Amino acid sequence: MLLFVLLISLLGSYLLTPMAKRLAFILGAVDKPNKRRVNVKPIPNLGGLAIYAGVILGLLFLEVNSQIKGIMVCSTLIVGLGLIDDLYELSALTKLLGQIIIVLILTLFGIKINFIRGYYIGILSIPVTLIWMLGTINTINLIDGLDGLAGGITVISAVPLAIVAYYQGQMLTVLLTVVLIGATLGFLRYNFNPAQIFMGDTGSMFLGFMLGVIAITGALKSVTVLTFVTSILALGIPIFDTLFAILRRKLSGKSIFKADKNHLHHQLLRMGLNQWQAVVIVYLISVFLGLIAVGLNQANLGEGIFLLVMASSFLLVGARKSGFFNFDSNKYSKY
């Protein structure tokens, strides 16, 4: 069953991506080069529609319960929101309000964080779920800056979530993860550098949404310190990149909603790497954090502390060496 839904979702997105590319040109959904982008020619940006279609095709072969229905309904809504943004460029506040409404609808289908350390949290499950989902939706959106980056990070992040879910006997979560991996891999064939198509906000918000849902149905079904840290590490690069961005903007006196070009991938480009090299390095960092996440899930207290100290030291030293905390973004002009 795992291999079957993997192939269905992969083939679905692979075959539909060229159609999404043509549709993008027809609708004018094209990313033109500007000071915030790294592409040097116009690139269609509705690839997220193909990823979404691949996931839906895979989900159709699963047993449809209330959770699957909720995922289908709300993923369709998040894709619709992203599509409108790709076509008309919604304001950050409008997108946030749309995301909040969609996540609230998701909770009506029973997809929410109900327990923390074994204690039922009741009505607090809604704000806790809301914070988590808004975080994952927007972290993937923020890291989508280089060819193949967001898609590859999604696949790498999904693997440890699937492994943890498998060890915990949560086969629905495993199936959801496999479907997402398949659909994303099918799209990546066209998105690796030099990209023929971008996923756009349609795709990045959808991928973030799916990763958030997968974590809730799996590792975060009942939150403990261990499961929370495992999920954070599995989604490590986009989460830490976003946290560093918020910290960097606050300390430099800028709005946290004001986009800049100081994300991890921008810093790697400034170090002289090309797009492919920068993406591979980010992939390797994500794999490292994913391995720690899996190891942490099987570790005792002492081993867990050691792994966390190692991961934290690695992230902080790497961020400092790469100039990640450099607040003077105006000194750079190439990217």
Structure commentary:
This is UDP-N-acetylmuramyl pentapeptide phosphotransferase/UDP-N-acetylglucosamine-1-phosphate transferase. With 335 residues, this protein is mostly helical. The protein is built from 13 helices and five strands. Strands 4-3-5 form a three-stranded mixed beta sheet. Strands 1-2 form a two-stranded antiparallel sheet. The relative contact order is 0.13. The C terminus is likely disordered.
Please tag this protein with its features.
transferase, disordered C terminus, 335 residues, single chain, magnesium, mainly alpha, transmembrane, metal-binding, 3% strand, 3-stranded mixed sheet, PNAcMuramoyl-5peptid_Trfase_CS, globular
Give me the number of helical elements: 13
Q: Distance between the terminal alpha carbons, to the nearest Å?
A: 45 Å
The 3D shape can be described as globular
Spatial order of the strands in the main sheet? 4-3-5
Number of strands: 5
In the residues, how many domains can be counted?
1
Secondary-structure element pattern, one letter each: HEEHHHEEHHHHEHHHHH
Mean pLDDT level:
84
* Biggest beta-sheet profile: 3 strands, mixed
Give the helix/strand class.
mainly alpha
Q: Residue ranges: pLDDT <50 for 5 or more in a row?
A: 329-335
Radius of gyration computed on alpha carbons: 19 Å
Strand % is: under 5%
- Into which percent range does the helicity of residues fall? 55-70%
Membrane topology: Multi-pass membrane protein
Cofactor: Mg(2+)
Keywords: Cell membrane, Magnesium, Membrane, Metal-binding, Transferase, Transmembrane, Transmembrane helix
Protein name: UDP-N-acetylmuramyl pentapeptide phosphotransferase/UDP-N-acetylglucosamine-1-phosphate transferase
